[in-house]
Amino acid sequence: MAQLVYSSKINKIRSFALFLIFAGFGFMYCGIFTKNIEWLMAIFFVIGILCVIFSTVVYFWIGMLSTKAVPIVCPNCEKPTKMLGRVDACMHCKQPLTLDKDLEGEEFDEKYNTGKHRRQFNEKNKSRKK
Fold first, then answer.
1. Which of these, 51, 102, 61, lies nearest to 84 by C-alpha position?
2. Which listed site, 25, 82, 101, 117, has its alpha carbon 20 to 30 Å from 73?
């Protein structure tokens, strides 16, 4: 049976921002190869610069979000990590984590962080308790 590997939301967003930087450099590199066609070179450079600027915005946003994240100590690896939402994964060992007592023992699903699934879970719990 294949084991699922979860990733921390903060790490996912940081990885996306890093990808944007490399994509931006890639677009600008393609612009150098098309220097004989000025309009195409300019388009590649503008797209590349926009990718790098957008990645800077994403890094700033995740930095601000990271300051609001709940710092906890992972019960598995005992390293400090940060948690966003009801369910998240450890940044170091990928251990699924939750601070919600109702979700303890439940199968890990990142959908619990969305409002729709949270309401469905709460309704299912209320009917189970009756």
1. 61
2. 117
